[in-house]
Amino acid sequence: MQFIKGHGTGNDFVILPDPDNQLELTAELVAALCDRRRGIGGDGVLRVVRAAKHADGADLAGEAEWFMDYWNADGSFAEMCGNGARVFVRYLLEADLATPAGVALPVATRAGLVRARVEGDVVAVEMQRPRVYDASTATLGGLTLTGAAVDVGNPHLVCALPAGLELSGLDLTRAPEFDAALFPAGVNVEFTAPGEPVDGADEHTLMRVYERGSAETLSCGTGACAVAAVALHDAARDTGTVAVDVPGGRLTVTVTDSSCWLAGPAVLVATGEVAPTALRP
Question: Where do the catalytic residues lie (predicted)?
């Protein structure tokens, strides 16, 4: 089975070319591929399938040729992955499966259609405008933090740290506790602190994230969009640009009246072959 390894600000993925949806991909195989000791290692799997060939992408086949079949590292599905979409687009271009059509290269996802534009090393994807819709809490060890619930096509809970508490001091080796009634399908939990002013950005935020199905990751694209939406909301702004620093680098999020652009580097680092049977216990 062929694979490509790529990442966006350290959020890394195993890419599986499967244009006609012929791979027998299972939750167990995905988890084995993402195992960092016994497999290839990754925060998730991006299967590259023609939209018309996949049940979850067929409705968008008239608008996009390719469907991003995204799986979390534990083998569960996710509706959307912002960094994954950017890496997915980088692969399509380098594999000559697509060419940028102006600023609107379409990709089908479980959260709907996203559009991409590419400028050198930077890949930006346009997603739905984040919606801040409720308040809730997350508990990490003995610390309970108030946060804002945000819909970015997948669920997020953005929790600002109180003054005096450093992001680097958080123990994210275990999943934060959250309100399962508000988030029945689980939730990505972002922890934030304010950053110093950045040229070209209206706000600057520092972020760490615990992703459902993947544990702590170096970056989360939809999480950065959620964090940006909360930063703008707290600043009484409806739109604007937010620099979001994650452990893997910097993402730039621009929230408009109707959508949200996530921009940053997307890199392919390796190609190879893997024997699926060797990954199974």
Answer: 81, 220
